[in-house]
Write a structure and sequence with these properties.
This protein is an alpha/beta fold. About 35% of the residues lie in helices and about 20% in strands. It binds D-gluconic acid (GCO) and magnesium ion.
């Protein structure tokens, strides 16, 4: 059995996605997601110019060996571009293996550890009243876990809040949006949002929140401590995590659970966070952290320290990544929660998928492989459009963490 074709498809059905499609000599195909929001073409080139030529003629069944070949063989290890490209190859090969075996991916991993996968969605609003309204809508849709984000009085814009009535989409066409940030205003306001959610909905629903890297460790400690009564499921990315030591300080002060890792690419980015039990949930994804092959290693390592998974699942990872993630989630013993932000309607048409949503949970389906494909003819009708993530500045103009 041999790989006879490997092609990269870049399309924009509502937002940009990079997809790798691998074809074998017996006609079986597999697809993988390689989307890196705002830097899509860098991964497309890494795949087209460097990995795809090396795939031709290889045995697609040797997933582990090809992973090691591309990881160790590049000499230049890690990083989001490299690891997203390797992930796309890995995801496509697992898809092919499942199709050959006639089994859904979760069966190849070891079978289901649960009946279904609990997912969380986003409730956002310009003010508390609007956020409570969207929270209520999502609760009515069946969600058992909801993330709350809200505009902050005195700040023009803030992470996680959509403009107008559109669904939240951080990337803007042609040029990065400049947002402003005030830690003082945010820290004064955020506890009021969580208290309002608990006052209205009680404690019988999981409440989450994303700080999106904006605080220093001591500020994050203060936030976690001040909202303990609201019993959040997690606070996400309270401070940037390049310096893993920083989380020790947060841990000394608060028992609010912490989720980190959507920007991580390998186990090395979170080794200390996990080993020292400085976090509770690891958010690495199939796409950005080297595919099923590497994500499984991260999860197994995390399990030893009772850290659970909480995979990133934004609309800027393609439905292919979502499909693979749901198989992983159904299997992984130390599953915590899966993010499901949803997709623009055209994206769901371009990527036919087997997954289903019911009552706040998802299931990857029983189709062999990961159950997500790409309609290439339809994809061709949505050409790439350059887009960037925003940047954040403090009120005096200093560039801050977005
Ligand atoms: C999340 C994330 C996203 C990211 C986005 C960047 O928790 O879902 O923080 O909103 O900002 O995926 O591409
Ligand atoms: Mg996040």
């Amino acid at each position: 059995m041999k790989i006879v074709d490997a092609k990269v498809i870049v399309c924009c059905p509502g937002r940009n996605f990079v997809t790798l499609k691998i074809v074998t000599d017996d006609g079986v195909t597999g697809v993988g997601d390689a989307t890196l929001n705002g830097r899509e073409l860098a991964v497309a080139s890494y795949l087209r110019d460097h990995l795809c030529p090396l795939l031709i003629g290889r045995d697609p069944r040797r997933i582990e060996d090809l992973w090691q070949y591309f990881y160790k063989g590049a000499y230049w290890r890690r990083g989001p571009v490299t690891m997203s490209a390797i992930a796309a190859v890995d995801m496509a090969l697992w898809d092919i293996k499942g199709k050959h075996a006639g089994m859904p991916l979760y069966q190849l991993l070891g079978g289901a550890s649960r009946e279904h996968v609990m997912v969380y969605c986003h409730a956002t609003g310009r003010d508390i009243a609007e956020t409570l309204d969207t929270f209520e809508q999502h609760r009515a849709e069946g969600f058992k876990a909801i993330r709350a984000q809200c505009g902050v009085p005195g700040m023009k814009s803030v992470y996680g809040v959509a403009k107008g009535n559109a669904a939240y989409e951080p990337a803007t066409k042609d040029w990065p949006e400049e947002q402003s940030w005030s830690t003082e205003k945010y820290l004064d306001f955020a506890p009021k949002l969580f208290a309002a959610v608990r006052a209205k909905f009680g404690f019988d629903i999981h409440l989450l929140h994303d700080v999106h890297h904006r605080l220093t460790p001591i500020e994050a400690a203060r936030l976690g401590k001040s909202v303990e009564d609201c019993r959040l499921f997690w606070i996400e990315d309270p401070t940037p995590a390049e310096n893993q030591d920083a989380f020790r300080l947060i841990r000394q002060h608060t028992v609010t659970p912490i989720a980190v890792g959507e920007v991580f690419n390998t186990l090395w980015d979170c080794k200390q966070l996990i080993e020292e039990q400085l976090i509770d949930y690891i958010r690495t994804t199939v796409t950005h952290a080297g595919g099923i092959t590497h994500l499984r290693r991260i999860a197994d390592f995390a399990a030893i320290y009772q850290v659970r998974t909480g995979c990133h699942g934004p609309s800027d990872l393609s439905p292919v990544s979502m499909g693979a993630a749901l198989h992983f989630d159904l299997w992984v013993p130390n599953f915590g929660l899966q993010e499901y932000m949803g997709y623009p309607a055209p994206a769901l048409e371009v990527f036919p998928h087997a997954w289903t949503f019911h009552d706040g949970t998802m299931h990857p389906g029983e189709v062999p492989g990961h159950g997500v494909d790409i309609d290439e003819a339809l994809a061709a009708r949505y050409p790439y459009e350059r887009a960037y993530l925003p940047v954040a500045r403090l009120e005096d103009g200093t560039l801050w963490n977005w």
